[in-house]
Sequence to fold (282 residues):
Amino acid sequence: METKDNKATVNVSKKPVAAKKKSSGFKGIKSAWIILVLCLVLAVCVYLFVLGNPANFQGGSTAGKPLNMLGTVYKGGFVVPIIWTMLFADIALTIERWLALKTAFGKMSLDKFVAQTKACLSKNDLDGVISLCDKQGGSVANVVNSTIVKYREVENDDHLTKEQKVLSIQKALDEATALEMPTLQMNLPILAVIVTLGVLTGLFGTVLGMIRSFSALSAGGGGDSAALSQGISEALVNTASGILTSALAVIFYNYFTNRIDHLTYGLDEVGFTVVSTFSATH
Fold:
């Protein structure tokens, strides 16, 4: 009786250790609104204290004509900090997603891990696969490890048919993958929204600037081409900023989706190998 109790104590103590391995590493920031709020605060500070620095304008006041590009951008109006919030969000979310996906892929390259896992499975070396998963870490290793655990569980179950065992392994693979995918795709929808919203906000700011320019020109009763060109340049700054913001969002979004697709293909390859190995050896 004492021996059984000791064994039970050991088994219970091992479970939290496995959980720690799966939760290790940077998983991402779930509350994306915190990033957006911080980016908004930063954008407003840049707008007021950097772009709105009196040294950027004639007469030492923001009411004067801009002396450089910083002053010209400031003249874009209240739309400027909105666009810059999205620009800073692009950068912040890119860093956040890069760190999260780096953790998800694990320590060694995914292709190398898949190749070594397939080599161990071809030898029916399940202990070798688990050892690889422990060394690799990340989402891929978590999925493979969960599948191998189910593999061993059904392997010694005499109450299931071979087809039921294969379906059970496949189900474990699908469930483990479904648990990991939300973490991989987290915050990417925000980048997708910025792709469109950046350009539209820039165009909105440009239209407002053009309206102000022509209204001021008509109120003056003259055709001052210098004032008109100055107003148009200030308005077009918003378009340029919006296009830059959307372009960066497109690049980052496609990069991360391609990385996730590569990881998914690796999971599918390993999962197919696990199921095939069980079917061939049992």
In short: The two ends are 36 Å apart (CA to CA). The first helix runs from residue 2 to 23.
